[in-house]
Design goal:
The protein is of the alpha/beta class. It has two domains: 6-106, Transcriptional Co-activator pc4, Chain A (Roll); 116-243, Beta-carbonic Anhydrase, Chain A (3-Layer(aba) Sandwich), CATH 3.40.1050.10. It has six helices and twelve strands. The chain has helices at 37-52, 97-106, 132-146, 159-163, 169-186, 206-222; strands spanning 6-12, 16-22, 30-36, 60-63, 67-71, 76-82, 88-96, 123-129, 150-156, 190-196, 228-234, 240-243. α1 (37-52) crosses α2 (97-106). The two termini are 23 Å apart. Bound molecules: zinc ion. Zinc ion binds at residues 129, 131, 157-158, 196, 199-201.
């Protein structure tokens, strides 16, 4: 999606929503789709799930209580509303993937819109090591880098080791649940994953840390919260560096 494309979600009576897709800022013209909020939520939940499973085999299909979903290619999502017996109704929509992606960011928390407007104070999220030496340098760095008032800290021993390793599913899910609270309840749109020098929880070589931090960034991106995700390295002097 280019910078000028904008998606707005308008609440309508009777638990309906209208999705408005603006091609540019100037003209005010937009394309729109009206559907029930339940369908809009289902579409975005499905989008996040299929993103996080790294599905790339088209056609993709999904079926849930309120709707059936198809993607013949990466450009478009076709949605058919179903009745209570699971039969197709007359209602269907073809949504550009750009629009669904943007919706998934809005509906990141099962319908609790994570609009920054709801929050007077701004938050970012760091997934840091429990190591006491890394706390203040990372919080200070994140506040300046992200221009936020507060930094939510999620700590584990060596989180870069955990998030880069799919075997650690229990711990990954635990981190993900805490990230979700920060994103949904505090409206954080920025997440940093930290690795550091002399990590007792993840005692690997520095170059392995860097690889793990990069893979961890990909893991967190795959959760589909639509946040900016970066990797950070805290060196032997307590200096924080971005890993890219
Ligand atoms: Zn550590």
């Amino acid at each position: 999606m280019t910078a000028n494309h904008k998606v707005l979600l308008q609440d309508l009576p009777n638990a309906d929503v209208e999705i408005r897709y603006f091609d540019d800022d100037q003209s005010g013209r937009y394309r729109s789709w009206k559907m029930t909020e339940a369908v809009a939520r289902e579409v975005t939940a499905w989008w996040r799930d299929s993103n996080s499973k790294n599905d790339s085999q088209f056609p993709l299909r999904g079926k849930t209580e309120p709707c059936e979903l198809f993607m013949v290619n990466e450009k478009q999502v076709d949605v058919h509303a179903l009745d209570r017996l699971g039969r197709r109704t007359m209602m269907s929509w073809s949504l550009p993937s750009d629009v669904v992606e943007k919706l998934a960011q809005e509906y990141v928390c099962d319908g609790k819109a994570s609009e920054g407007l709801m929050h007077e104070r701004t938050f970012a999220t760091v997934i840091n090591c429990m190591d006491g030496r890394t706390q203040l340098p990372v919080i200070d760095y994140a506040k300046q880098r992200f221009l936020v008032d507060y930094v939510d800290s999620i700590t584990e021993p060596g989180p870069d080791g955990i998030l880069s390793n799919t075997i650690e599913k229990f711990y990954i899910d635990s981190i993900r649940r805490r990230v979700e609270i920060s994103v949904c309840n505090h409206g954080s749109r920025l997440i940093a994953i930290v690795g550091h020098h002399d990590c007792a929880g993840n005692p690997v070589e520095e170059r392995v840390h860097f690889e793990q931090i990069k893979r961890s960034v990909e893991t967190v991106q795959s959760w589909g919260y639509g946040c900016d995700v970066i990797g950070l390295w805290v060196d032997a002097n307590g200096e924080v560096h971005e890993v890219s």
